[in-house]
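fyi for ur records
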Amino acid sequence: MKYSDSQIEYLLAEIYAGVYGAYNLPEDLYFAIADYLKKALYEGFGSSLSALPTLSKDYALLNEMRTNIYAFSGAKTYQEVVDMSALLTSDGGVSSFRDFKSKALSVYETYNKNYLETEYNTAIAQAQNANRWLQVEERADVLPYLTYNAVMDANTSEICRSLDGITLPVNDAFWRKFMPPNHFNCRCVVTQTDDAQVSSKAQVKEARQVEGKMNDLFVANPGMTQIVFSDKHPYFT
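which gave:
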């Protein structure tokens, strides 16, 4: 993320002075986060908005997802500033700007390095699969079946193992909830074919039970919802 040391220093000083807070957010931080996540969105989608025909389905989908990135970035900036501002209360135990800076930097690092890396990867995966869903719909007449494919190794999650191999028609309601990614850093994909052995009702019922173990953020199909981060994300609360 393009946010310099001098910008961080200014940010912390303004929060400490009470200039920045819940009702006056730092726009430069907001745009830095948004631009960084937008880069991930475009990388995953395989195109920027300006490179697409304005009346195309691709443009409409990517535009909605970009709007969601800006909303998410605003919510993230808000939560981050609120958390740093909370250090200034009596419970925060801050005795000086130096003390505040040390603690606030830890908050900054958590939001903009630890969390942001995962959010970046999530934006890439959501964009990839949203774009893939467009292709799935376009080819549904000649390739009417989808199969869920998990990467099977020591890092495979229980969620992905449970869904691996499920094969159903493109128009089956199953894909409204179980189109990858289905968790943070999910590596699963779907393959589309013209002929397949459809999974039995028992197999699908068993696979669906994994929904209770999934983060609500990923019980969706990004190509249908047209968003990267759902309103169930903690930032939005």
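Residues 129 and 135 are 10 Å apart (CA to CA). thats all i got for now
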